[in-house]
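Protein modeling request. Please complete all fields; requests missing the sequence field cannot be processed.
Requester role: graduate student
Desired output: 3D structure, token encoding
Chains: 1
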Amino acid sequence: MSIDFGGGDRFVVEVAELDGLIRGLSEARDAIVKINRDVKRSLDMNISPSDDPYSPDAIQKIIECAVRPGPGGHSSANQVYQEAVQQMIDKLVAAKQQYERAEGANRSTLGGKG
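Delivered output (114 residues):
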């Protein structure tokens, strides 16, 4: 089965592999969600690598940079990645449903002519 994932690129996917692909991508999406949640929790961290007066501020700035919204932030990149993976899942699920409908129609047609 050929699936268009956008941008003019089409990929050939074995129908028998669709469930495994959907499951694997769902696991990847869930891992991205967990990573993003962990990154956001890091805002609450106040562990300084040393007792000098600059480390706490430096750690806070690094954490803020990682979770800030917009370009360059770790959290924003994860969100974009999560959305791209979800779009792939949605397209695979839609392709599977379309295939199943076509197979059902074919079975009905062939079953009625016997």
